[in-house]
Specification:
Chain A has six helices and no strands. By secondary structure, chain A is an all-alpha fold. In chain B, α1 runs antiparallel to α2 and α2 runs antiparallel to α3. The chains are: A mainly alpha, B mainly alpha.
Chain lengths: ~170, ~100
């Protein structure tokens, strides 16, 4: 009984705070609403029994990415916030139309998807604990995992090169 | 009582649509990057939902990889945003219309 209540509650919080994050005028409020939506998304991951993904999601998004966003926002100053493009009716209609079109397309694709991909949640769920994820990550996904460290290294070097005034 | 898989997917689809609206209507560079993060998260939710319904861990591993890529993307993207602010003195994406200076 608790699971549906938690799902619908946090799904609602997720969607409302995501909507606020893209519509609120003040950028710091936007980032804080994004933080709320990240926590609700972590609850949804938890309900899907992806425990490790939920914990990593909170650490990476709420702990690292959001702090980075707030830091850059404060660094650049948010008092000269450019007006959103809501005011331009053509642009607004284009954006909303594209979003609704993509929503309809996704629902259509889901409706006509092949039926053997697993339509319903397994009664015997696979549990995403640290042990099972770690075993998969260090056996069958070892090469992508190591390549990912290379990607992160490139990102570190790239941001240092970009941020330094002169090398 | 179990929540049907379609409800998780519909939440993810709506989240993706919200991210697209933000991507096309915000003019602050940093909030455009934030909307891209919303798109990433919608995709992660779809990955984890299908991982749950197909009964293997591959979707969760794909979600973890996607989070690492998102972290790298944000680090480089925000560095570029700082550089753009230094050279153009604005964070309005509509004003970035020149490649030189």
């Amino acid at each position: 009984m608790l699971e549906p209540v938690a799902f619908y509650l946090f799904a609602g919080i997720l969607l409302v705070s995501a909507l606020l994050a893209v519509t609120l005028r003040h950028p710091v409020y936007s980032v804080l609403c994004f933080l709320i939506s990240m926590f609700s998304l972590a609850v949804l991951f938890w309900l899907l029994k992806a425990y490790f993904v939920a914990v990593i999601h909170v650490t990476v998004y709420a702990g690292a990415i959001l702090v980075l966003f707030l830091f850059v926002l404060m660094l650049l100053g948010y008092d000269k916030e450019p007006p959103a493009l809501w005011t331009n009716p053509i642009r607004f209609a284009f954006a909303t139309g594209l979003a609704l079109l993509s929503l309809a397309g996704l629902l259509w694709a889901y409706r006509f998807a092949r039926s053997d991909v697993g339509r319903e949640l397994y009664s015997q769920p696979v549990i995403g604990t640290i042990e099972s994820i770690g075993r998969a990550l260090f056996s069958s996904y070892l090469l992508p995992f190591e390549l990912l460290s290379l990607v992160l290294l490139v990102a570190i070097i790239g941001s240092v090169v970009l941020a330094k005034k002169e090398l | 009582m179990m929540i049907p898989q379609s409800h998780y997917l519909i939440v993810a689809f709506i989240l993706f649509a919200i991210g697209l609206v933000g991507l096309f209507t915000r003019r602050n560079t940093i909030l455009v990057l934030l909307s891209i993060e919303l798109l990433f998260n919608a995709v992660n939710l779809i990955f984890v939902t299908f991982s749950r319904s197909s009964g293997n861990l591959e979707g969760q591993i794909a979600a973890l990889f996607s989070m690492a890529i998102a972290a790298a993307e944000v680090a480089v993207g925000l560095a570029i945003a700082i550089l753009l602010f230094r050279s153009q003195k604005t964070i309005d994406v509509a004003k970035f219309n020149s490649l030189k200076d």
